[in-house]
Structures are given as structure tokens and as C-alpha cells.
């Protein structure tokens, strides 16, 4: 197992966002984490990547305990992630955003940098070459010298994945990578996720797009109220009564609101 989470708990004041959660991700495995909004998916990823300090529980990355370590320490041990809300450096070039990922493993001394030694220039070139390689890998079409924030949204998402890959992770966490993508971009994302796995990188993704989840996942983990309620193949999970109930409970409420809105709009139209 590359990631093993046990008895994870995260409290925000009175809110228990993660409540005794356990799950694992195997090496080179593609696992989806799904569940209704507020189920604790992002919170669990934030604990695993060190952005939140868990209240209790164990998180092992490649066998080593990482619960409570800083994000940089966990990244150095082989975990990279992307964010539900993009977090690129908007005022840096596309290339420099990805180069930032390489600095995790690039050995540079401050003195070499200050004196611009040949060793420093060599490592800078290596960083650029690697960044270009990952931008090729994710299929970036836009201008690499331009500012990251000038790229269309779907391209920025690719840059974020390239930056994560430039860290040479063993495990990549993707938080809603398909959000905001059009149909064509989603198809490309599906292929990209598989190519990343073929490099030997394990992938855990949080995703709401069920057709993508069902197509790409080898295993699906379902969260509700901070707990795991199901873990199995896409087919198993699709038929699991507990999963259906977790989603139907919410869908019913959403459908009611939707029906109410439609009715109101219809009345408005009649009066107009
Ligand atoms: N920074 C925070 N401060 C307070 N409560 C939070 C914070 N982040 C998440 N929560 C709460 O934790 C619960 C789980 O949220 P989250 O992990 O974002 O769910 P998901 O990603 O599954 O939609 C929700 O009740 C949410 O309101
Ligand atoms: Mg979330």
C-alpha cells in the first residue's frame, strides 16, 4: 500500500469533518473518493497532504507515519496534489509554475545560486527541461512563456497537474480535476489519468462526474458524514444500498428545490 489511513479524525470546533475514516490506496492504483458535498473528502485529502493537522488517527505514506507533518515534508516523501480551487502562481509564467515543482528534488545550494556557478546553471537547465517534458506529457497547448493566469481554465488545470508531476510523486491526489471542464477535456483527462498511472504513480481522485469515476476507477471509496460507507469496484458501489441512500437523500432535496423553482418560473411566465 502506498497510502494507509486509519481512524482518521478531524474536528473544526464543533464540526467533525472526518470521523474515524479508514481507507488505503495501492501502488499504481486508480482510486476514486466520492460522496455528497460536505462528506469530508477534501478534509481527508488535506490531512493526508499536511494542509490540515488531524485531530487523531494514522496516515502512512509508503509505510511511514506522516500524520501531522508539514506539507513540504509530506511532499518530499512522495505525495503531490492538485486543489479543488486552482492554486497556480498567476503572476509567474506557465513554465515557471511547473519548474517550481522540480525544486523539491533539484539539489541547489544558495551559494551556487548567488554566484551563478556552472553547477547552478546546469540544474536550472535540468529544471526547465523537466518542466517542458511534463507540459508535453499533459498536452498543454497554450503559450508556456506567458503568465499562467492568461491561459484558459482547462489549460490551467493541466498546468497544475504538470506541476504536481514535476515533483516526481509516488501518489497523486486530484481534488475534482474534471470540475469546469467540457466534454472533450474530460475525455482527455481520463486518458491522462491512465497515462500517469502507467508511469507507476498511484492516483486518488475526488470527483463528482460519475461517468468519469465509473470509467477510470479500479476502486471506489464512498464517504458520508466523515466516514467510509463503501469500498469496492465501480459496479459494486453503484449497486450498494448504503451508497444509493446517501445520494438519494440529497437528490430528493435537490429535486424538490428544482421542482419548486420550475413551478415558480412557470407561474411567472403565465402572468407575464
Ligand atoms: N476550514 C474549515 N473550517 C470549518 N469547517 C470546515 C472547514 N473545511 C471543511 N469544513 C467542514 O467539514 C465538513 C467536510 O467538508 P469537506 O471536507 O470540504 O467536504 P467535501 O470535500 O466532501 O465536500 C463540512 O461540514 C465542512 O463545512
Ligand atoms: Mg471538496
TrEMBL record:
Molecular function in Gene Ontology: ATP binding
Domain of life: Bacteria
SMART domains referenced in this protein's UniProt entry, alphabetically: AAA
Keyword Mitochondrion belongs to the record: no
InterPro entries documented for this protein: AAA+_ATPase, ABC_AA/LPS_Transport, ABC_transporter-like_ATP-bd, BCA_ABC_TP_C, P-loop_NTPase
Domain spans labelled ABC transporter: 3-250
Keywords: ATP-binding, Nucleotide-binding, Transport
Source organism phylogeny: Bacteria, Bacillati, Actinomycetota, Actinomycetes, Catenulisporales
Descriptive protein name: ABC transporter ATP-binding protein
Amino acid at each position: 500500500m502506498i497510502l494507509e489511513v486509519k481512524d482518521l479524525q478531524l474536528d473544526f470546533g464543533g464540526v467533525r469533518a472526518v470521523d474515524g475514516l479508514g481507507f488505503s490506496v495501492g501502488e499504481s492504483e486508480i482510486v476514486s473518493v466520492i460522496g455528497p458535498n460536505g462528506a469530508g473528502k477534501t478534509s481527508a485529502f488535506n490531512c493526508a497532504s499536511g494542509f490540515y493537522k488531524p485531530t487523531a488517527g494514522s496516515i502512512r505514506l509508503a509505510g511511514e507515519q506522516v500524520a501531522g507533518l508539514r506539507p513540504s515534508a509530506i511532499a518530499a516523501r512522495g505525495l503531490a496534489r492538485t486543489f479543488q480551487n486552482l492554486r497556480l502562481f498567476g503572476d509567474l509564467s506557465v513554465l515557471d509554475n511547473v519548474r517550481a515543482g522540480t525544486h523539491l528534488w533539484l539539489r541547489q545550494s544558495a551559494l551556487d545560486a548567488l554566484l551563478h556557478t556552472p553547477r547552478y546553471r546546469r540544474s536550472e537547465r535540468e529544471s526547465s527541461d523537466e518542466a517542458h517534458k511534463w507540459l508535453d506529457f499533459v498536452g498543454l497547448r497554450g503559450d508556456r512563456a506567458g503568465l499562467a493566469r492568461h491561459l484558459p481554465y482547462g489549460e490551467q488545470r493541466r498546468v497544475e497537474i504538470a506541476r504536481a508531476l514535476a515533483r516526481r510523486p509516488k501518489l497523486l491526489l486530484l481534488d475534482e480535476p474534471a470540475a469546469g471542464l467540457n466534454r472533450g477535456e474530460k475525455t482527455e483527462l481520463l486518458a491522462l489519468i491512465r497515462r500517469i498511472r502507467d508511469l507507476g504513480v498511484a492516483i486518488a481522485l475526488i470527483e463528482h462526474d460519475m461517468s468519469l469515476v465509473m470509467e477510470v476507477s479500479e476502486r471506489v471509496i464512498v464517504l458520508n458524514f466523515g466516514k467510509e460507507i463503501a469500498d469496492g469496484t465501480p459496479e459494486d458501489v453503484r449497486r450498494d444500498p448504503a451508497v444509493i441512500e446517501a445520494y438519494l437523500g440529497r437528490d430528493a432535496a435537490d429535486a424538490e428545490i428544482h421542482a419548486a423553482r420550475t413551478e415558480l418560473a412557470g407561474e411567472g411566465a403565465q402572468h407575464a
